[in-house]
UniProtKB/TrEMBL annotation:
<protein>
    <submittedName>
        <fullName>Uncharacterized protein</fullName>
    </submittedName>
</protein>
Length: 264
């Protein structure tokens, strides 16, 4: 297909868009395929030529789509990372046997406008809660699903606080090495990465999530996270308690340091 690109780049790109539309109509795109492009670009690629002509796309997008559909692309967009990390069949088996499932992520993030302050009800505010309030942060619950996709690749889907929506905000790949899970994904023209110290799904697992905001100045941030399997109903209920959840999170994660950082 590379020869097609050089001989007739626009014609090859149109054929690639036809293949992409056919794949989408046949049952949807894999998380890895979605991660190649932002949601906005993917939406334009799937439109018919009459609505969005192929000539309007940049050369880099044309080449990226053709590459992603070629045999040279390999089974996964993240295959190069996997090779550099030296992920083995044993690592994949560890993910498959121990860490597949639906999880909830708890973390601090920048507060939305007019977010109620739970501390104002108590009268007594701990030093950590004073710091959180000064930074204008709020405690949120998000969703993460780890699974093996149709190509038998370890993958994840991530939803923000509005996780009832069907389509994930971020899709990507999962790697395991030396007691850590690495989650690498892309969406909305940004990269995201999670590093989580893992034990077993019956216990909470903590780590960090690093990405950029998808609104405003797109400032980068890093947040300490707590990953809890959906089956751990007792801990989930405690963390969802607006009066006790934030302190419990800080106690479990030893959150007296670096639980949220951002740069403008």
């Amino acid at each position: 297909m590379d020869s097609e690109l050089h001989a007739d780049g626009l014609g090859a790109f149109r054929k690639a868009r036809d293949r992409l539309r056919a794949e989408y109509a046949g049952g949807g795109l894999s998380p890895q395929k979605k991660a190649v492009f932002s949601a906005a670009t993917l939406s334009r690629l799937l439109k018919p030529e009459s609505e969005y002509d192929s000539s309007q796309f940049s050369l880099s997008i044309r080449e990226r789509l053709i590459w992603s559909l070629s045999d040279d692309a390999g089974p996964s967009v993240y295959g190069g990372i996997e090779e550099l990390m030296g992920q083995s069949p044993i690592s994949r088996q560890i993910i498959k046997e121990n860490f597949q499932g639906d999880y909830r992520i708890f973390r601090y993030t920048k507060a939305s406008p007019h977010t109620p302050d739970p501390d104002s009800q108590d009268g007594v505010v701990s030093p950590m809660m004073q710091q959180r309030r000064l930074l204008e942060l709020e405690f949120v619950e998000e969703r993460l699903c780890i699974f093996f996709d149709d190509m038998k690749e370890p993958a994840f889907h991530y939803w923000g606080r509005e996780w009832q929506e069907e389509d994930p905000e971020i899709a990507g790949a999962v790697f395991y090495s030396l007691g850590k899970l690495y989650l690498t994904g892309a969406a909305r023209d940004t990269m995201s990465m999670g590093i989580i110290s893992v034990t077993r799904t019956t216990e909470p697992m903590q780590g960090f999530w690093t990405s950029t905001f998808h609104k405003g100045v797109r400032a980068p941030f890093s947040a300490r996270i707590l990953l809890v399997h959906e089956g751990n109903e007792t801990l989930l209920a405690a963390l969802r308690d607006s009066a006790k959840g934030p302190e419990l999170f800080l106690n479990i994660t030893d959150g007296g340091y670096a639980y949220y950082m951002t740069m403008s």
